[in-house]
Amino acid sequence: MFNPKFTITNQILTNVSKIEAAREIIENSPLVPAWEQKFREEAIVRAVHYGTHIEGNDLTFEEAKDLIEGKEITARNRDIQEVLNYQRVVEFINKEGKSRDQIDQETLLQVHKLTVDKLVPEEQVGRYRTVKVVIRGVETGQVTFTPPEASEVAGQIENLLGWLNSDSGKVNSPILKAGVLLYEVVRIHPFTEGNGRTARALATLSLFKDGYDVKRFFSLEEYYDQDISGYYKALQSASNQLTTDESERDLTSWLEYFTEGLAVEITRIKDKVKKLSVDLRVKGRQGQIVLNERQIKIVEYLDKNIQINNAAWRELFPMISDDTILRDLKVLMQNKIIKKRGSTKAAVYVLK
Question: Are residues 193 and 222 in the same domain?
Fold first, then answer.
């Protein structure tokens, strides 16, 4: 049976500790519920854009965002289709991640089907490859790795998923499980196209199913897209080892890279949430705070501009009366999110 080989290094422990600490803050921050939809929408756009961009998609972030929002853009049909497909993949993950059902071969094939729909011949959609493939270096174009023969794909995938769902797999941190899953799907390369996107999607789904959805605010893809050479180098660090036994490949350096990327992403979200939360002690006194759209915009404005006065909010809300805005400000003060400085018409409001 497949049993991955790796060592829990100090770097991995440090990265996992950072992830756990950031996750705790995100899930308990008092302002998170008011911002959940906004953060989730941002995470979807980042996952879709960076998840396709790393594979060579030419759409800009804004073009991908417009497309996801249903707007028309001018671009290559293939680039558009890749983004639309990966949007469906992310939606599938968000839905499927709520279930505690095991990830099986059907799940893998469904993710691949959504990934490459209308991009490859129909007989290759959601089906394992039947031909030999090689992996070439991004910069050199030279062969850097030869995945298993096509005849071995189904068996190796079955062994991988068997480990993932076994007691020996479950004893590992969900973070390490997801990292092993991502690497192994890339290594096995079960499809003619779409392996990277499928592997990263499955890793995210594995985290979600193990309770590490972190409110679905994060995206693995952005970190990898911004460090493409490091990403492929980390994958190849294990793949280039001279062994035909997949259980003998040492995944330590890959897992150090994987946990570092997740730590960077989760910490980035944590820092953003902490800024908006203002005072985590509010939760203990007030319960979780739910803000309306105007109140959220006021907090956003203060986060960027330090303070707001009557001239500023009239520009921010030109169609809203001063009395309505003053009521919104009063709610924010009652919840100890902002405070007032001054008592005349020259008064300003700042984050507390």
Answer: yes
Q: Which residues contact 35 (CB under 8 A, 6 or more apart)?
A: 273, 276, 296
Question: Which of 97-111, 176-190, 271-285 is predicted with the least confidence, judged by mean pLDDT?
Answer: 271-285
Looking at residue 38, its pLDDT comes to 80
CATH number at residue 233: 1.10.3290.10
Q: In total, how many domains does the chain have?
A: 2
Give yes or no: residues 168 and 303 share one domain. Answer: no
Report phi then psi at 74, rounded to 5.
-105, 115
Residues 84 and 211 reside in one and the same domain: yes
Mean pLDDT of 275-293: 57
Task: Decide the pairing of beta strands 135-136 and 143-145.
Answer: antiparallel
**Comparison of pLDDT for 275 and 301, the residue scoring more:** 301
User: What pLDDT does 254 receive?
Assistant: 96
4 in any annotated domain: no
Q: Does the residue 5 lie in any domain?
A: no
Please report, for residues 161, 295, 337, the alpha-carbon distance to residue 108 in angstroms, rounded to integers and kept in the order given: 10, 42, 45
Q: Over 80: is that where the pLDDT of 169 sits?
A: yes
